[in-house]
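Researcher: Here's the sequence for the chain we discussed earlier.
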Amino acid sequence: MRCSMFDARMSAQLKDTLPEFSLEQMCNPAGAMTEVAQVYLEFYGFLEVLKDAEVDYFWGYRNCPCADQTLRIATHYWRCPDARATVFVVHGLFDHVGLFQHLIGHLLAQQYSVVAIDLPGHGLSDGAPTVIGTFADYGAVLEDTFQFFQRSLPAGPVYGLGQSTGAAVLMAHVFSAAKRKEAHPFDRLVFYGPLVRPRGWSWGKLAYRWVGRYIRELRRDFSVPNSHDSSFHNFLRYHDPLQAQGLSIEWIGALNHWVEGFAAQPKVDTPLLVVQGTADRVVDWRFNLPVIRQHFTNTQTNLIEGAMHHLANEAETWRKAVFTSTTQFLRQRSP
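Model: Thanks. This is the structure I predict for it:
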């Protein structure tokens, strides 16, 4: 894993050369693919994932509406033959698809097809780093992606799995469909350390109101780990060229809008599993879990003792428990 060096120059080159996403054109890492694309796949561990999985792989940009603009959204699709279901994986703040090779590899090994995108302002997708108007804008990009694949996916269940802000994006998409009285987009949902409000939000909200008009970005603090896996933490801090170095004030404003408006969201009965680490120092999980259960009326909760925030990249002992819980839930029969 991460043998070749992938740097900021290469990421810029890849953004310029990644082709338009097409289900008519599979990606062949051993064949017709640019060198920089192959380096990306090796650097983030996906060559190893593809080596161990019998899947068709598709990768490229899709043009998605986001607020008042159209953005190129980096889109990945791993298609398993005879898949049990298709899982839409949504990453969190500062993340991108490249960090989710453990989870994606696990899902493929369990015979799930996987769709994953880099959210706007993250990874290889368009957008200023971490800038977003509202979380509903993230949800709209996910909804556009969902509708694109819905037209072409084989028959079978469709699940959503989100890490932290990714869980909020899934909620925004589901709430939007519920308000329009449309069918539930997903047959099941899984949230890892879901974000309603972050830890220490009372102080954060106050600071946002006082200084938000004067500065455009807060410098990111890498000193506090979000996983027991020190190699993952060090990779984020020193080696990942796709990591934003600051948090935009616009994102904090979108968070404020999300927190303030959450109580007014509709109720949803989609089966939901919330997996939450008890050592999470990022989200205010003791507040979040009850309010999520108020809106998702068919919720199961699995507290992982001692686990930190980034459950998809926790150290192996905790990550194994997270993935086992996920698999068991996804295989449950719907009532």
